[in-house]
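Priority: medium. Attachment 1 of 2:
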C-alpha cells in the first residue's frame, strides 16, 4: 500500500510538472531590459533590473537571507519604511507595461556587497516549473569586491572547512570556489599530493570541475587561490568525502491512520534502510511542531517521535523526511486526536442504492466515522443479517470498514437494510437505514416455451402476446420487418452470432408498429399490468385482425438496466393448416368422370410431397386410417403426379390426374409430406368413392289436367338417374321454352303456366336423358271457359298496385320526417354557449362564420395527449401538452376537445360549429378561451382550449368546506388588491374589443380574486403578479365567494355583449384556474348528458330544470335574462359551498307549479342579506324586471369593496343553524328570512335597477318604505309528502319521480271528469274544480304542443310527455295557463 501511495505521489508530481511545462512553453517568456547575460557592478553600488511579461511576475535573488519588500500601487510613491541599523532590503516595485507585455516589475538593490554575487531570476508567479527562456529570465551579477574575491555567504570565512560529498558513480567533482570578479586568475591546490591539471576546467560561475580519476592520487582536500594586487587570498578548504547515496527502504509505523483520544500518548517510528556510509538526516513535520517539543531520538537509522499527552491541535499530517547527500525520501501518515468517543453515520450517495441482479459481488457501505472502532451489526427488514440463510451460505459477508458484501445479487436481496454501530463503554449507538433496489433486466417469458411451428391461416385473426417482467417495470414495444433477406447493421459484427434469431434481430430494416404501415391490419397494443404466476408482469397484446402478409414481428422489453427481445416469424399461408388435400370435382365422382387429387403443402413448413394409394391386398387386417405415416409406403403404391410451385402463395402442389375414373379406382389415397423442421413425415388420407352410372327412370309421371281460363297450370316431371338426367319439355312434339306466362323451374322439373289461355291446351311431353339413355312421359291438358273475364281481372290488379305504391311512398315520407333530427337540438348535446338566433337560425350562422387556418391551425405534432379529463356519448376532453415550434421550451398544459371514434358527420359538424362560435366570441379573462385547432384531414378534429387545473367550481367549493372562513380579510394589502381588480374590470368594460388569436387568452397579471391582483395600464403592459401559492393550501373566505360571483358576472356580461346565450350556467360549468381566476365553460362533449342526472330529456333535448327560468321551461324562450335567472341559482350554489339547489324538493309537476307561482329557495347559510337580495332579484318572474349582467357586475363590484362585510371578530351567520341532506353537502337555512334581512336585501340594491315592488320578496309599505317579507319559500309548505332520502351529492341531485302509470293518467286528464281529477296521483296537494279545469282547458298555452316526449325523471330536471296535457297541473287555482312568450 505504501509503494502504491509513493507511486501515486510521483505520478502527480510528473503530471504537475508536465502541465507547468505545457503552460510555460505555450506563452512568451519574460524579458529583461538588460539583454546581456552577465553584469559586473562595483561594490556599494545600486543594482536596478526591469522585467516585463504577459503574466504576474516575481523576482528571486542569490542571497536567500536577504529580505525583500514589494511596493504596489500608491505605496511606490511613499518613502521606504525605516530599516534596522545595517539591514538591507531588496525592493520590488511595479512599473509601466508595454503593448503585448502589460506586466512589469523592477528590482532595486542598493549598497551591493560581494555576497550579492549570483543569478537574479524573473519568473511568472503562477508557474511552478521555472525554465530560463520559457517561463523565466535570469542574469548573473558579479559584485567586484577587492576585499572579498571569493564568494562567501552566511557565517563562513576563508579558513573554514567545507565537505564535498561524492558517490562512486559520480563522473566528475565540482569545487564550488565562486568569485566576485569574473576576471580573477584562480588556481587550484591539492593536499597532500600534487594535482594533475589535465582535464580540469574553470568557470567563474561554478568553480573548478575535475574528472573523477584525479582521486586516484589519494587527494584528500582542495583549495582555490588568487591574487588581488599584492595580496593573496584563499577560499575555504574542501574536504572530499565519498559516501553512499542509495535509500533502499523507508517505513513509518504505524502505517495506517492513527486515531486517539485527548491525553493519550502518540509514538511514531520512522525506519530507513540505506547504502553503507550514507549520511542520513531525519526531519519531522507535524501540526504542533512550532508550539511544543516532541521527544525525538535516533538510533541506528531509526527515528522515534513521541508526544506524551496529545490534544486536538495535534490532529493533522505527520511527515518523516529521510535526507541523504543526494536524495530525500518522505513518508506521511495522518494522526487524528478526538476530544471524546463518537459515532457518525451518513450516506455515500443517498438513502437509495441500486444494483443489477446477477452482479457477481456488490458491497453495501455507508460513510462511517467513529472512534474507538464500534461493534458492527447489519439488519435486513428488521432481522440480523448474521441470522439469515444468505449469511450462513456465505452469500453475504461483513467486511472490515462496516461493509456488507452480497455475492451473486438476486432480486430478493432488495429491501431496507440497517447498519447499527454500538460503543458499549461509551454508551453510544447509531443506526441508519439504506434501501437497496435490485434492478432486474427484462425477461420475456414467451421465449421460454417453444415458438409455434405451424403457419398462420390467411384471413384469420391472431393475438401475439409479449409478457415481460423486470425492475423497474420494462417498456414493451413492437416492431416489424418484411419477410425477406436481412441486412445486418454495419456497426455490429456477425462473428459472434449463434443462430438466425440473433442475426434477424440486428437487421436494419425494422420498423415501428403503425396502423398505416404494418402490412397486416392490426390494433395498436396497449401494455397492461397483470398478475401472472403470483407476480405482476407487463403484458402487451398485438391484435392482428386480418393476417394477410408474411412478416417478422419483434417484441422488445427494455428498462434502464437491459433489454430483451422476442422474434415472431409470422408466416401467413393460404393452405389450411399448412398441409391439405382435395379431390376435384368431388370425393364421390361418377364413373367415367375425370378426377384430380391435389396435395398442397406450405413451402415454409413442408417438402418432398408424394401420393400413395393403399392396396387392400397389402393391408390385410390393418385398418387404413390406423396405418402410421412412416410405414405408409409398405402398404401402398406410389402414384406419379405433377409437382408445381405456386409462387404467390409460397406452396407446393402435387396433382394426380385420373382422366376417366373407374369403379376399380375407388379406395384410400394418401399424400405424404416431410416437415422441414423436424424431418418427420405427415400424411393426409382421402377416400374416393366412385358412383356407378344409372339410366333415367320416372319416380312420378305427369298426369292429364283440365283447367279453366285465367287459372294456373302446374305439371311436375319427377325423374332420377346417375348422373341426374337433363329434362326437356315439348308441346305437341314441339320444344317448349320459357317465355311470358310460361315458367320452367327446378332444373326444368316443374312446368308452370300463369293465366291459362285456350291455346295452351295440348299434349305435353317430358324427356329425361343422361349417359345411359333417355325416357319420355306425356300428359294432355284441356282448357275450358271464355277469355273475356281475364281483362277485368287485369284492371283490378293494376289499380291495386298503384294504390299500394302510393301508400308506400306516403309512409316513407312520414317516417323520414319523424326521424329527422332538428339541427337546433344537436346544440344541447354539444354546445351550450350559442349565438342569439334572433334573426338567423344558428346552423345558418355557423355556416357563414369564418375559420382562418393561418391564425388558428395547430400542428398535431406539437400536441402530446395525456389523460382523459371527461368523456361523453360522442366526444371527450383530454389533457394535453403543447410544445413550441422548437420543442426546447417547457410545454404548456391545455385541454383538447375531440370526437370519439365512429362519430357521425352531424357530430363533426357540431364540433366545427363550436370552434367557429368560440372564434367569433373572442377571448376574455373569465371565459375558457380558444387556443387553436387541428382541422387538417390527416387526423381527428381537435379543438384546443385553456386548461384549468382546479376543476369545476362546484367540486372545489365542496372540497374546501372544512377550510371556509365566513368573514373577509381587512388587511390593507387585500383591500388594495380588491380596488385594483375593480378598476381593471372597469377598464376592461370601457376598452372591450374582440381580441385577436395572437393575444393571450389569459395572463398571469390579469386581475382575479384578492390573492393576487395587479392594475393593468392601457399604455404599458401589466407587471408580473407575485407567485401565488397553491389554492388547496389557502383557506376559502367570504371575499372569495363574492369574487367568484363578480368574475362570473363579468364573463357573462362579455358573452351577452357578443350576443351569446349560455343556457346552462351552473357551478359545474365554471372552472377554477390559477391565480383564483374563474372561467365560464361548457365542455359539452366531455359530459355524457344522456347519463348525467343533471340533464333530463325534453323531447330530443335534455334540460337542467333546476337552473332554468320559467319562460325557458314553459315557452322554450332563451335570452340573456334567462341566463340571469341561472346566475341567481349559481349564486345560491356558491354561497352554499357547492350544495345542490332546491335541497329536499321533489322535481315534479308540483315543483314547476310552485316555481311559477313565485316560490323561491331560502338563503344559504353563508349568504348575507345583500347577496340574498341579488338572488331574489335574479329570480324575478318577469324577465324584464331582472337585473342585467352589467348591473350585476357593478353591484358585486361595489359589494366586493364594501366595508360592511363581517370581520372575524364580528362575524355572525345569517342563519344560526344549518341542516344537511343525507349527502352531507347541502347547507340550507332552517328558518324564513326576517323582516330586517329582507329590508336590508331590498335597500342594498341600487334603486335605479330595482324597486321593492316588482319582485315577490318585498312590497313598499306606506311612506316608511318598509320591506315586508312576501317571499314564499319551499320550506313554508308541507313537506311530508316530499320526504325522500337523496343520494349522494357527488352522484346526482334527487327529486321525486312520476311513475309511468301516473303519466298515463295525466295524458288522459283532459278526457276525465272533474271528479276524476281528484284521483290523479297520491302526491297531488289540491284538486281542481270543474271551472278551474275547464278554464285550464280553454286557456291552454301553445307551448304544450311543442313539449314533445317530456317526462319527469327522479332527479333535478323534468321531462314532459308529448301527448300529456301538462297545463292542468302547472296552472294555479286562480290563474290560467300563461300565453306563449313573444321574447
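Attachment 2 of 2:
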Amino acid at each position: 500500500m505504501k509503494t502504491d501511495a509513493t507511486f501515486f505521489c510521483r505520478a502527480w508530481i510528473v503530471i504537475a510538472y508536465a502541465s507547468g511545462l505545457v503552460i510555460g512553453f505555450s506563452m512568451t517568456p519574460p524579458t529583461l531590459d538588460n539583454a546581456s547575460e552577465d553584469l559586473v557592478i562595483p561594490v556599494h553600488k545600486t543594482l536596478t533590473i526591469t522585467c516585463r511579461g504577459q503574466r504576474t511576475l516575481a523576482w528571486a535573488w542569490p542571497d536567500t537571507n536577504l529580505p525583500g519588500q514589494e511596493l504596489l500601487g500608491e505605496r511606490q510613491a511613499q518613502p521606504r519604511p525605516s530599516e534596522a541599523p545595517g539591514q538591507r532590503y531588496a525592493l520590488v516595485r511595479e512599473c509601466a507595461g508595454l503593448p503585448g507585455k502589460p506586466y512589469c516589475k523592477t528590482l532595486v538593490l542598493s549598497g551591493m556587497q560581494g555576497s550579492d554575487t549570483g543569478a537574479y531570476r524573473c519568473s511568472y508567479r503562477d508557474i511552478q516549473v521555472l525554465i530560463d527562456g520559457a517561463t523565466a529570465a535570469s542574469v548573473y551579477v558579479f559584485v567586484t569586491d577587492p576585499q572579498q574575491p571569493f564568494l562567501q555567504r552566511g557565517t563562513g570565512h576563508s579558513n573554514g572547512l567545507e565537505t564535498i560529498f561524492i558517490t562512486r558513480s559520480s563522473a566528475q567533482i565540482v569545487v564550488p570556489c565562486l568569485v566576485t570578479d569574473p576576471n580573477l586568475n584562480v588556481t587550484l591546490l591539492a593536499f597532500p599530493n600534487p594535482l594533475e591539471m589535465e582535464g580540469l576546467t574553470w568557470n567563474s560561475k561554478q568553480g573548478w570541475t575535475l574528472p573523477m580519476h584525479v582521486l586516484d592520487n589519494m587527494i584528500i582536500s582542495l583549495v582555490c587561490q588568487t591574487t588581488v594586487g599584492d595580496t593573496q587570498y584563499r577560499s575555504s578548504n574542501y574536504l572530499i568525502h565519498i559516501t553512499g547515496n542509495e535509500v533502499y527502504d523507508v517505513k513509518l509505523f504505524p502505517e495506517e491512520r492513527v486515531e486517539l483520544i485527548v491525553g493519550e500518548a502518540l509514538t511514531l517510528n520512522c525506519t530507513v534502510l540505506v547504502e553503507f556510509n550514507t549520511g542520513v538526516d531525519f526531519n519531522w513535520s507535524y501540526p504542533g511542531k512550532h508550539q511544543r517539543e516532541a521527544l525525538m531520538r535516533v538510533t541506528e537509522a531509526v527515528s522515534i517521535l513521541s508526544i506524551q499527552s496529545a490534544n486536538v491541535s495535534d490532529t493533522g499530517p505527520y511527515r518523516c523526511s529521510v535526507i541523504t547527500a543526494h536524495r530525500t525520501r518522505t513518508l506521511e501518515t495522518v494522526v487524528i486526536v478526538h476530544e471524546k468517543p463518537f459515532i457518525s453515520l451518513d450516506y455515500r450517495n443517498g438513502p437509495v442504492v441500486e444494483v443489477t441482479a446477477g452482479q457477481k459481488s456488490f458491497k453495501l457501505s455507508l460513510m462511517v466515522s467513529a472512534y474507538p472502532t464500534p461493534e458492527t451489526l447489519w439488519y435486513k427488514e428488521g432481522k440480523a443479517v448474521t441470522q439469515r440463510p444468505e449469511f450462513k451460505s456465505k452469500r453475504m459477508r461483513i467486511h472490515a470498514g462496516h461493509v456488507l458484501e452480497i455475492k451473486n445479487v438476486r432480486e430478493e436481496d432488495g429491501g431496507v437494510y440497517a447498519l447499527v454501530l454500538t460503543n458499549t463503554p461509551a454508551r453510544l449507538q447509531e443506526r441508519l437505514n439504506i434501501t437497496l433496489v435490485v434492478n432486474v433486466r427484462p425477461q420475456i417469458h414467451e421465449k421460454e416455451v417453444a415458438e409455434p411451428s405451424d403457419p398462420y391461416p390467411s384471413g384469420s385473426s391472431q393475438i401475439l402476446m409479449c409478457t415481460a417482467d423486470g425492475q423497474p417495470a420494462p417498456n414493451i414495444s413492437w416492431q416489424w420487418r418484411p419477410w425477406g433477406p436481412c441486412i445486418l447493421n454495419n456497426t455490429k459484427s456477425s462473428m459472434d452470432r449463434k443462430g438466425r434469431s440473433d442475426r434477424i434481430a440486428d437487421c436494419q430494416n425494422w420498423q415501428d408498429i403503425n396502423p398505416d404501415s404494418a402490412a397486416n391490419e392490426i390494433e395498436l397494443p396497449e401494455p397492461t399490468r397483470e398478475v401472472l404466476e403470483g407476480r405482476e408482469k407487463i403484458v402487451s397484446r398485438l391484435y392482428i385482425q386480418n393476417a394477410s402478409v408474411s412478416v417478422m414481428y419483434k417484441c422488445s422489453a427494455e428498462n434502464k438496466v437491459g433489454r430483451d427481445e422476442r422474434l415472431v416469424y409470422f408466416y401467413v399461408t393460404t393452405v389450411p393448416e399448412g398441409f391439405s388435400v382435395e379431390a376435384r370435382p368431388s370425393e364421390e365422382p361418377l364413373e367415367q368422370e375425370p378426377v384430380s387429387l391435389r396435395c398442397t403443402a406450405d413451402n415454409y413448413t413442408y417438402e418432398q410431397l408424394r401420393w400413395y394409394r393403399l392396396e387392400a391386398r397389402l393391408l390385410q387386417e390393418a385398418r387404413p386410417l390406423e396405418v402410421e405415416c412412416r410405414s405408409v409406403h409398405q402398404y401402398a403404391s406410389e402414384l406419379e403426379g405433377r409437382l408445381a410451385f405456386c409462387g404467390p402463395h409460397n406452396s407446393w402442389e402435387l396433382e394426380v390426374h385420373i382422366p376417366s375414373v373407374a369403379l376399380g379406382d375407388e379406395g384410400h389415397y394418401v399424400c405424404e409430406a416431410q416437415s422441414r423442421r423436424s424431418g418427420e413425415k405427415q400424411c393426409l388420407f382421402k377416400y374416393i368413392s366412385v358412383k356407378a352410372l344409372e339410366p333415367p327412370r320416372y319416380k312420378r309421371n305427369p298426369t292429364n289436367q283440365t283447367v279453366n281460363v285465367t287459372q294456373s297450370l302446374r305439371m311436375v316431371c319427377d325423374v332420377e338417374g346417375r348422373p341426374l338426367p337433363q329434362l326437356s319439355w315439348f308441346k305437341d312434339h314441339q320444344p317448349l321454352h320459357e317465355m311470358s306466362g310460361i315458367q320452367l323451374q327446378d332444373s326444368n322439373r316443374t312446368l308452370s303456366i300463369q293465366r291459362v289461355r285456350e291455346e295452351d291446351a295440348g299434349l305435353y311431353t317430358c324427356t329425361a336423358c343422361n349417359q345411359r339413355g333417355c325416357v319420355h312421359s306425356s300428359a294432355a291438358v284441356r282448357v275450358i271457359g271464355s277469355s273475356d273475364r281475364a281483362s277485368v281481372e287485369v284492371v283490378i290488379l293494376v289499380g291495386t298496385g298503384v294504390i299500394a305504391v302510393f301508400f308506400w311512398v306516403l309512409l316513407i315520407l312520414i317516417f323520414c320526417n319523424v326521424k329527422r333530427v332538428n339541427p337546433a337540438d344537436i346544440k344541447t348535446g354539444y354546445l351550450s354557449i350559442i349565438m342569439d338566433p334572433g334573426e338567423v337560425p344558428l346552423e345558418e350562422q355557423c355556416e357563414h362564420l369564418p375559420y382562418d387556418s393561418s391564425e388558428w391551425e395547430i400542428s398535431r405534432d406539437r400536441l402530446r395527449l395525456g389523460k382523459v379529463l371527461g368523456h361523453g356519448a360522442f366526444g371527450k376532453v383530454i389533457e394535453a401538452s403543447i410544445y413550441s415550434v422548437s420543442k426546447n421550451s417547457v410545454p404548456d398544459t391545455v385541454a383538447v376537445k375531440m370526437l370519439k371514434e365512429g362519430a357521425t358527420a352531424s357530430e363533426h359538424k357540431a364540433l366545427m360549429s363550436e370552434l367557429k362560435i368560440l372564434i367569433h366570441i373572442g377571448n376574455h379573462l373569465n371565459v375558457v378561451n380558444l387556443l387553436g385547432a387541428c382541422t387538417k384531414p390527416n387526423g381527428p378534429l381537435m379543438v384546443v382550449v385553456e386548461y384549468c387545473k382546479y376543476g369545476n367550481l362546484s367540486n372545489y367549493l365542496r372540497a374546501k368546506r372544512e377550510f371556509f372562513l365566513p368573514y373577509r380579510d381587512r388587511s390593507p394589502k387585500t383591500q388594495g388588491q380588491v380596488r385594483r381588480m375593480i378598476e381593471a374590470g372597469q377598464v376592461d368594460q370601457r376598452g372591450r374589443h374582440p381580441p385577436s388569436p395572437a393575444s393571450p387568452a389569459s395572463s398571469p397579471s390579469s386581475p382575479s380574486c384578492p390573492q393576487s391582483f395587479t392594475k393593468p395600464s392601457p399604455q404599458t403592459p401589466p407587471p408580473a403578479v407575485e407567485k401565488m401559492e397553491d389554492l388547496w393550501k389557502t383557506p376559502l373566505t367570504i371575499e372569495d365567494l363574492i369574487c367568484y360571483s363578480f368574475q362570473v358576472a363579468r364573463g357573462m356580461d362579455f358573452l351577452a355583449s357578443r350576443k351569446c346565450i349560455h343556457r346552462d350556467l351552473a357551478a359545474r360549468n365554471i372552472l377554477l384556474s390559477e391565480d383564483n381566476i374563474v372561467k365560464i365553460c361548457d365542455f359539452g362533449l366531455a359530459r355524457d348528458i344522456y347519463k348525467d342526472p343533471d340533464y333530463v330529456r325534453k323531447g330530443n333535448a335534455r334540460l337542467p330544470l333546476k337552473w332554468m327560468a320559467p319562460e325557458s321551461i314553459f315557452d322554450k324562450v332563451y335570452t340573456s335574462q334567462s341566463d340571469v335567472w341561472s346566475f341567481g341559482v349559481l349564486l345560491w350554489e356558491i354561497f352554499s359551498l357547492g350544495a345542490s339547489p332546491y335541497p329536499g324538493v321533489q322535481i315534479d309537476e308540483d315543483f314547476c307549479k310552485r316555481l311559477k307561482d313565485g316560490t323561491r329557495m331560502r338563503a344559504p347559510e353563508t349568504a348575507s342579506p345583500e347577496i340574498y337580495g341579488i338572488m331574489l332579484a335574479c329570480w324575478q318572474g318577469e324577465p324584464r324586471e331582472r337585473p342585467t349582467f352589467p348591473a350585476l357586475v357593478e353591484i358585486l363590484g361595489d359589494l366586493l369593496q364594501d366595508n360592511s362585510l363581517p370581520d372575524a371578530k364580528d362575524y355572525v351567520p345569517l342563519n344560526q343553524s344549518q341542516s344537511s341532506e343525507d349527502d352531507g353537502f347541502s347547507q340550507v337555512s332552517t328558518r324564513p328570512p326576517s323582516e330586517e334581512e329582507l329590508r336590508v336585501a331590498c335597500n342594498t340594491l341600487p334603486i335605479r335597477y330595482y324597486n321593492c315592488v316588482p319582485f315577490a320578496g318585498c312590497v313598499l309599505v306606506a311612506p316608511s318604505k318598509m320591506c315586508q317579507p312576501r317571499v314564499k319559500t319551499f320550506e313554508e309548505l308541507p313537506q311530508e309528502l316530499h320526504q325522500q332520502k337523496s343520494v349522494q351529492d357527488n352522484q346526482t341531485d334527487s327529486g321525486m319521480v312520476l311513475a309511468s302509470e301516473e303519466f298515463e293518467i295525466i295524458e288522459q286528464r283532459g278526457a276525465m271528469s272533474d271528479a276524476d281529477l281528484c284521483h290523479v296521483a297520491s302526491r297531488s296537494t289540491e284538486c281542481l274544480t270543474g271551472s278551474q279545469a275547464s278554464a285550464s282547458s280553454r286557456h291552454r298555452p301553445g307551448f304544450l304542443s311543442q313539449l314533445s316526449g317530456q317526462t319527469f325523471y327522479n332527479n333535478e330536471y323534468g321531462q314532459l310527455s308529448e301527448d300529456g296535457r301538462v297545463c292542468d297541473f302547472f296552472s294555479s287555482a286562480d290563474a290560467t295557463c300563461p300565453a306563449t312568450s313573444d321574447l
